């Protein structure tokens, strides 16, 4: 048998032997990350099979129930809240951060915000907490040190600019920009309004916040070979380049 035929046979055998890993995703960007990771994963004996869910919590529940092998659809705090998981799900690597941003149509920099500016926050607990932590990071407010990852307005201990606050449902956040407010937009709400954090926000979360998404698996699987192979794919040079060229830092790399 000729060399080319032997090489082709080897590739076919390798593809047949690859361990199929079903990974939950909840965003188009999640699926695109897996596509970028596929070549390196295959070189390490893993074929990635994305499984789409409407939201991250559904992917977490499917992982806990054993219907998929892994998930990249949630960050670690959300993973800990998956109903019925009982601590059986673990994060083995970071993937990307979908950053919350602070947006304004009247100020080009946070320093330009006048005293008494109205700040619009997400009404739901996680979005509100991330927004307040981001404002604390930029010095707009000071939070109680015991507030944790989901601070509330009642946890504000200093507000030297006399900012006022309004909480709105996610679909009402972006329209509030027309009223001159400073608006805290979760990544998905910004994307739905055609906004990109790196281009349009005047403040955004760092890549290494606690809300960076993770590759999650069941605790019993954390040391099996396909997990390490999947991490190598997700942390490959091709994925690093993809994140930079596709998202221009609006989706951020925490590894």
Describe the structure.
With 255 residues, the chain is of the alpha/beta class. The chain folds into two domains: 3-98 and 209-247, Periplasmic binding protein-like II (D-Maltodextrin-Binding Protein, domain 2); 101-204, 3-Layer(aba) Sandwich (D-Maltodextrin-Binding Protein, domain 2), CATH 3.40.190.10. 35% of the residues lie in helices and 22% in strands. The chain is built from nine helices and twelve strands. Strands 2-1-3-12-4 form a five-stranded mixed beta sheet, with helices on both faces. Strand 1, helix 2 (28-43) and strand 2 (46-52) form a beta-alpha-beta unit. Helix 2 packs across helix 8 (225-234) and helix 2 (28-43) packs antiparallel against helix 9. The longest helix is centred in the first third of the chain and has 16 residues, at 28-43. The radius of gyration is 21 Å and the shape is elongated. The N and C termini lie far apart (45 Å). It is a lipid-anchor. This is NLPA lipoprotein. Keywords: Lipoprotein, Membrane, Palmitate, Signal. Belongs to the NlpA lipoprotein family.
Average pLDDT reading? 94
| Tally of contiguous helical segments | 9
Cα radius of gyration in angstroms: 21 Å
Portion of residues within helices = 25-40%
Q: What is the CATH topology classification name of the largest domain?
A: D-Maltodextrin-Binding Protein, domain 2
Report how far apart the termini are: 45 Å
Lateral arrangement of strands in the main beta sheet? 2-1-3-12-4
Tell me which CATH architecture of the largest domain applies here: 3-Layer(aba) Sandwich
Largest sheet geometry: 5 strands, mixed
CATH level-4 homologous superfamily of the largest domain:
Periplasmic binding protein-like II
Total strands: the figure is 12
Number of domains: 2
Order of helices and strands: HEHEHEHEEEHEEEEHHEEHH
* CATH C-level name of the largest domain: Alpha Beta
Low-confidence stretches: 1-15
Share of β-strand residues: 15-25%
- Shape category: elongated
Structural class: alpha/beta
Family: Belongs to the NlpA lipoprotein family.
Organism: Cupriavidus taiwanensis (strain DSM 17343 / BCRC 17206 / CCUG 44338 / CIP 107171 / LMG 19424 / R1)
Main location: membrane
Protein name: NLPA lipoprotein
């Amino acid at each position: 048998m000729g060399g080319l035929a032997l090489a082709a046979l080897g590739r076919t055998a390798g593809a047949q032997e690859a361990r199929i890993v079903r990974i939950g995703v909840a965003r188009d960007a999640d699926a695109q990350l897996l596509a970028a990771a596929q070549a390196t994963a295959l070189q390490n004996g893993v074929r990635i099979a994305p499984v789409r869910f409407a939201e991250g919590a559904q992917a977490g529940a499917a992982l806990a129930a054993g219907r998929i092998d892994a998930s990249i659809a949630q960050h670690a705090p959300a993973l800990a809240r998956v109903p019925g998981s009982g601590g059986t799900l673990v994060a083995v690597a970071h993937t990307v951060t979908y950053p919350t941003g602070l947006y304004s149509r009247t100020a080009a920099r946070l320093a330009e915000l006048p005293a008494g500016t109205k700040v619009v926050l997400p009404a739901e607990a996680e979005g509100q907490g991330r927004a307040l932590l981001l404002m604390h990071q930029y010095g707009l407010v000071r939070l109680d040190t015991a507030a944790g990852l989901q601070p509330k307005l009642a946890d504000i201990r200093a507000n030297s600019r006399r900012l006022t606050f309004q909480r709105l449902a996610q679909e009402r956040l972006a329209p509030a920009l027309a009223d001159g407010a400073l608006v805290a937009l979760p990544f998905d709400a910004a994307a739905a309004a055609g906004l990109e954090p790196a281009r349009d926000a005047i403040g955004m979360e760092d890549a290494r916040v606690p809300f960076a998404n993770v590759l999650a698996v069941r605790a019993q699987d954390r040391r099996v070979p396909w997990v390490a192979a999947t991490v190598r794919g997700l942390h490959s040079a091709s994925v690093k380049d993809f994140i930079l060229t596709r998202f221009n830092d609006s989706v951020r790399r925490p590894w």
